[in-house]
From TrEMBL, chain A:
Transmembrane segments: none
Gene3D superfamilies for the chain: P-loop containing nucleotide triphosphate hydrolases
GO molecular function (one): ATP hydrolysis activity
Record's keyword terms, sorted: ATP-binding, Nucleotide-binding, Transport
SMART domains in the cross-refs: AAA (SM00382)
Listed GO CC annotations: plasma membrane
Protein name (record): ABC transporter ATP-binding protein
Species name: Nocardiopsis alba
Annotated ranges, domain ABC transporter: 32-278
Length: 291, 329
């Protein structure tokens, strides 16, 4: 992979093509369109999104105070939880009601807040699991190496390329459980890329990662966008969010209360009241020391 | 000299028909737990339907043994589907609760009076193995071996077939585990949500593994019916499942040859402790014990040995300690 440079002119290009900074605003080229998605647990409405569009080829951040429904929203959209009502389309195709693996096959792949490295598999095996359409994964085809050997070779090459790019190549034979927390985050992201998604959903990619690795993760996220992939991520670190996002969606109590470019969000009084005021104080102590 | 006799007898058990049959069922359990992470506490239920599949076909309907085997295997598929469809979408513990209960329910149903017309209730079914013995290439009554290490021709035939099936099952497991299919089910063992997020239909894979391991359990049950020539429901108690678990953990879960080594070691130990206790009893060294106590003491003794082994070698005889330690999250 060549594009190891951070695109310095990122801020100059307007990827949002004039979208209005208001909740539910229309985008010129939406990859994901969400309509009326609701989910409640008992009496508590966790998610109630009336309308949300995610622009193709951008980094969109989903932020909000604790309990705002960010992770639930992720689970719903990726088929890991069932909605009470609502519809959503991905690349123009309806994917509501689809299960987690079907959503992933459609090209929308996710990572998890608590990293899910497959600990007793090697790093390379972790990667190979991400490859799609493997004949050897069907029981009928599994018995004969001659049936799946070629495909395996191609997949292995691609996996090694990705590991090289994520600087995990020296660890390829190690058990994934032997990696550090930050390396597991990298592995999870690389593994997600192995599925060759058009949209990647990252649930708190920076959580628990040491400051040195944060820079490298940020760099990987921006280079994903520069390759034309769409990134939607949940994050708490405001410096990170303001630094790399093209667009920010603010959730509070399950609703979208604001949308816009980082500059719009920074000056949005509603957001400051609901979230930023309290959050910034928290951040002083915990995370922002590294930037 | 006596101790040599005891050792010879123990070695005989380690390669005997029962060790082969338990190894076969444990290979199935290894597919469930060792590779896919399915907690199946009812493997004996699969053995039961396998044994009764062949038993009822032969004794009640007079069908050939080969057809009986197929019936037993078909029953195992049905049982796996019945167990798997409601529980495999849920958390792992639901399968374990369901399987342990289902195996007991099966035993109670097969021994119940309303089922007597086909299962013959608590008395069980007899004369099952004549069809199997009819194709015995060895001389059924003759003795083969040397010293005290002898088997009858019938036993030898059964051992040949049973160990042959174990060999086939191990080969099958090896091929599957070293394929992309095996990678997916090992991934499911580690974290099924992660595997799901990579576009794999986790439910379908778990179902395939459950059916496959269940088929091996049923095959073991059918071989048990051939070995004994008679079956009755109460030999399929939950303790059989737990013997299988001990065998699996002893040998090393998630290792292709683990169940074989585990079964041989287990039956060696069981026979050795039994022989030793009886010998000590005969010599008058255990005056406070009478005959029936030996069985209980033997189980306890074997249990202590197994506990020691699990404490000092948790990965089993051929497990990978590194892999065990990595699992501490």
């Amino acid at each position: 992979m060549s594009s190891d440079e951070v695109n310095g002119s990122a801020a100059v290009v307007d990827r949002m093509a004039g979208a209005l900074p208001e909740p539910g605003s229309a985008k010129s080229d939406p990859i994901l369109v969400v309509d009326g998605v609701k989910r409640s647990f008992g009496g508590l409405t966790a998610v109630d999104v009336e309308h949300l569009e995610v622009q193709r080829g951008t980094i969109t951040a989903l932020i909000g105070p604790n309990g705002a429904g960010k992770s639930t929203c992720f689970n719903l959209l990726t088929g890991f939880d069932r909605v009470d009502s609502g519809r959503w389309t991905f690349e123009g195709r309806s994917i509501n009601g689809k299960r987690g693996h079907q959503v992933a096959r459609a090209g929308m792949v996710r990572t998890f807040q608590l990293t899910k490295a497959l600990t007793r598999l090697s790093v390379l095996d972790n990667m190979l699991l991400g490859a799609q359409g493997q004949t050897g994964e069907r029981m009928g085809g599994a018995f004969l190496r001659s049936v799946w050997g070629r495909q395996e070779k191609v997949n292995t090459e691609r996996a090694l390329d990705l590991l090289e790019r994520f600087k995990l190549i020296d660890k390829r034979r190690d058990m994934a459980g032997a990696l550090s927390g930050g390396q597991r985050k990298l592995l999870e992201m690389a593994r997600a890329l192995m599925t060759d998604p058009s949209m990647i959903m990252l649930d708190e990619p920076m959580a628990g990662v040491n400051p040195a690795l944060v820079q490298s993760l940020l760099h990987h996220i921006t280079s994903l966008r520069d390759e034309g992939k769409t990134v939607l991520f949940v994050e708490h670190d405001m410096d990170v969010i303001m630094g790399i996002s093209d667009w920010i969606v603010v959730l509070a109590q399950g609703r979208v209360i604001a949308e816009g470019r980082p500059s719009d969000i920074r000056s949005n009084q509603q957001v400051i009241d609901a979230y930023l005021g309290a959050q910034e104080v928290e951040d002083e102590g915990s995370v922002s020391g590294d930037e | 000299m006596d101790i040599l006799m005891i050792l010879a007898e123990a070695a005989r058990s380690a390669v005997g028909p029962i060790a082969a049959i338990y190894a076969l069922a444990a290979v199935g359990l290894n597919m469930h737990f060792g590779y896919t992470g399915l907690l199946n506490f009812g493997q004996v239920g699969f053995m039961l339907v396998g044994a009764y599949g062949v038993g009822i076909s032969v004794a009640v309907f007079g069908l050939p043994v080969s057809v009986g085997f197929l019936v037993g295997l078909a029953c195992a598929v049905v049982l796996a589907l019945l167990l798997g469809i409601p529980t495999l979408r849920l958390r792992a513990d639901y399968l374990s609760i369901t399987t342990i209960a289902a195996a007991e329910v099966l035993r109670l149903v097969y021994r119940a009076s309303f089922a007597e017309s086909v299962t013959n209730g608590v008395y069980g079914l007899q004369n099952l193995s004549s069809g199997f013995r009819a194709v015995n290439p060895f001389d059924g009554g003759a003795r083969y071996g040397f010293g005290s290490f002898v088997f009858t021709g019938n036993q030898l035939w059964l051992m040949t077939v049973a160990w042959g099936l174990v060999g086939l099952a191990v080969l099958l497991t090896w091929l599957l585990i070293h394929s992309p299919w095996g990678r997916v089910i090992k991934g499911i063992r580690e974290d099924e949500d992660a595997v799901r997020s990579l576009g794999k239909n986790v439910f379908a894979y778990k179902m395939q593994a459950l059916v496959l391991g269940g088929l091996l359990g049923a095959l073991a049950g059918a071989m048990l019916a051939m070995h004994q020539g008679a079956i009755q429901p109460d030999q399929f108690k939950p303790q059989v499942t737990f013997f299988l678990w001990v065998i699996l953990l002893l040998g090393g879960a998630g290792r292709v040859f683990g169940p074989i080594l585990g079964s041989m070691a287990f039956w060696f130990l069981m026979s050795f402790t039994d022989g030793l206790l009886r010998w000590m009893g005969r010599e008058g060294w255990l005056p406070f014990l009478s005959g029936p106590d030996f069985g209980a003491i033997q189980l306890a003794f074997a249990g202590v040995m197994l506990v020691l082994l699990i404490v000092f070698r948790p990965q089993g005889l051929i497990g990978d300690r590194k892999e065990m330690l990595v699992n501490v999250k």
